[in-house]
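Here is a tokenized protein:
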Amino acid sequence: MKSIYWFRNDLRVIDNLSLNEAIESSDEILFVYMQDVQSFKDTEWGFSRMGPHRKLYLSQGLNALQEKLSNYGHSLNYYLDDTVDGLLKLVEKFHIDRIYCESIDSHEELDQEIRLRGHKVDLYSYYQSGLFLNDQIPFNLNDLPDVFTKFRKEIESREVKPIKPSLINQRINAIKSIVDEESNEIEMEQMSYPKSSFPISEDRFFGGEEKGFTFLEAYFSSNKPSTYKKTRNELMGIDFSTKFSPWLASGYISARQVYDFLLSYELNVIKNESTYWIFFELLWREYFRLIFKKYGKKIFHRYGLGLSDEKVSHSDENFELWKEGRTASNFINAGMKELKETGFLSNRMRQIVASYLVNELSCDWRAGAAWFESQLIDYDVSSNHCNWAYIAGHGTDPRGGRYFNIQKQKSTYDPYGSYEKLWC
């Protein structure tokens, strides 16, 4: 059987269940990454959906995947096209029998699958980006709690555990590789990030499976997991948080791999509140994925999942000041400059600048979510939009939105002004 393996946000070969199925069932495979042309077009807010930092980090990972596949005698075929149109051309050109891919529960990605099936393509898609597989979730989607704490307690009381990460199917050495001489080159523009908390110009922070796994290994070989809860709200530096999110977002590593390392650390080193909190954060990530699956496109609406018909205000002028780091608050400006210059921002600072945009500048939360999508190297559609909806009061939390007192946040997390001075 001739197949396409369509890489999406799973740019790895280890613990890639869908890839293993493709290898097991195919005689020949065309390994494909489709860079959708829509990702370089402007949003309704007037800027590109994918900024330079995301482009660079993705390019690093694609080059790493190309090198990884070449170790098995294969190559990655890269295309810049409408994703569905591009795949249909390849199906016709190479007489493909089936396309394999991971399933992503967001409306644009699901629409791509629907369009392909509408063209009678035999498409095998498999959900694999979370901690748990679909059949491990202990309730129907309609019964998914709208409050995270209920979800967490249900998972913990039923002792739902992730499966062990899978190795690469060794048939990869035996299958024939289809190579398209007309595929595109992966372009990569070098940039420097000397002040970043995640400097992707430094070798150990490069995008890609090997770098991600090495970082994961190093983190759990240190004492950092045992102090994570105490340091996680800091604003700058390499060591205050796990920094797994960029590698997880592009699928260079999997959530199950993180959990596997965490479990080993708890068994062999120490199990405490900080190690639990790493699992707690993975559960939040899981929960947002399930919320996306439950509510779909509604999350992108002006009122998110809320029922309010109150007019949502927006000021283009205020949004531009926020985006460019030219507000009345130097603390906010520091965060926005870090984001624009590096493509990274601490979790605490993300919440602070989001609250400022929504509550102080009275802007549409979706504009902020779109700017984060453009800039963040760890952009993840479900985590990004659910967090923004949560701050704006348009998520599932019955308590409504979140207001952060900027002066209090500055006094608590930047009492000596070190962060502000670094970026302003």
